Amino acid sequence: MADRVHPMPAPPSPRPDQPPPAGAGAAATETTPLQLHPSFNRPLSPPPGTYIVQVPKDQVLRVPPPDRARRYKKLAARPARRRLLRRACCCACAAFLILILLAAAFAGAAYLVFRPRAPTFSVASLSIRGLNNLSTSSTILSPELDAAVRADNGRNRKVGIEYRGGGSVTVSYAGERLAAGPWPAFRQPPRNVTVFVVDMRGEGVRLAEEQRRRLAAERAAGAVPLAVEARVPVRLRFGKTVMRTWTVDVKARCDVAVDRLDGNATAVNRGCRVKVRPLWWWW
Hints:
Residues 149-254 form the Late embryogenesis abundant protein LEA-2 subgroup domain. It is built from 2 helices and 12 strands, in the order αβββββββαβββββ.
């Protein structure tokens, strides 16, 4: 600790009746040696209530002891490791954002170039069997329907459609399913219209009494409303390139009216709705 320095009091001035000290004439030419004040020789007392701890310099630990060196090294390297981890996380987030931006830009460019459109569907005709017996409500029906479906890809000039396997088509009346069948797998080029037949079969169909009476009245009037629904997994192929979409589900619903419930019936389309999930692009 630094010692405190107190100002030295001025020496007493000699009285007039005292003779000058010896050698006073030489005081102007010689330097009088400095005499230390007695206060410099005794240690300073600290203020009351103050504790002073003095540690010798040879006992100050500036290097960790050997038994603590490994832990000290580990704790000293932790901030650097955290900085590296933080930097890696920032780089990963930046790369992810860049990939998203590139994918969005690519999808937008592909959409502007190819202009993909959803296909349209309609029911050309229906062949119905097994729906004639509407006498009693206890009768179990096993209807069979063959539907001629028309798939139109005329709106796409550069986009072909691949209809994958696993699709299905169902026919229902007043919410009651009558028959179901598989959708065929095929490829449809751009600006193409394809008509195919779907065989649908039903077993154990039992209609309520109210449904039977209404169905009989509508058959007599020559306008029986039926709902044809399809769920088809498809992929879009862009031009002659290998670029195509993931397999997505296309759901279509067509409301039709038939004039008879046996034989080849004439189907009048009352509108079809097509729903397609968002497309995700890939190579």
